[in-house]
Write a structure and sequence with these properties.
The structure is a single chain. β1 and β2 form a beta hairpin. Helix content is about 25%, strand content about 30%. The chain is globular, with a radius of gyration of 14 Å. With about 70 residues, it is α+β, with helices and mostly antiparallel strands. Strands 1-2 form a two-stranded antiparallel sheet. A two-stranded parallel sheet has the order 3-4.
Length: about 70
């Protein structure tokens, strides 16, 4: 049902240009999709993210801390 659709959306990797793809953490953790798109390098931006596939991909991590909104 709805959960399967959400899981598929979260794991999506979208092509931005010939050699650039964009996705969330679900995409970065979806080895089948990464391999299907011949992705070799992953840029992870966030707090508490961990590379999942170690030696299979090159990872660059940028740590950012998200603060609560003071709206």
């Amino acid at each position: 049902g709805d959960l399967k659709v959400l899981d598929k959306f979260i794991a999506q990797i979208v092509r931005v240009s010939e050699r650039l793809f964009l996705g969330g953490v679900g995409g970065a953790y979806n080895q089948e999709e990464l391999s299907r798109h011949n992705i070799t390098d992953i840029l992870m931006v966030g707090d508490g993210l961990r590379p999942k596939f170690g030696e299979e991909f090159n990872y660059l991590q940028i740590y950012i801390r998200v603060l609560p909104c003071r709206c």
